[in-house]
Design goal:
Number of domains: 1
Number of helices: 3
Helix content: over 70%
Low-confidence stretches: none
Radius of gyration: 14 Å
Structural class: mainly alpha
Number of strands: 0
Mean pLDDT: 94
Order of helices and strands: HHH
Shape: globular
Amino acid sequence: MRVITAIGAIFAGIEVLYMIMVLAGANAGNAFFIFIKSLAVPLALFWPGLFNVDNGSLQVILDFGLAAVFWLVVTGIIARFAGR
């Protein structure tokens, strides 16, 4: 049960880290940024582009923030059922 919750927290953390790096203007050519992006984009699943807004910062928050919340909620539900 804790393993499932931890996996969800790690996935959400990757999404939040990528979101912060993009919003802070991290160097897109940096190897660490590229590594985090290679993890965050596939983990975002269907969220990027689901809601289109004109503000680029808000778009990043919606795309990757909702994905982070999704992972926390889904793994929390799975952990709850696995614990029964």
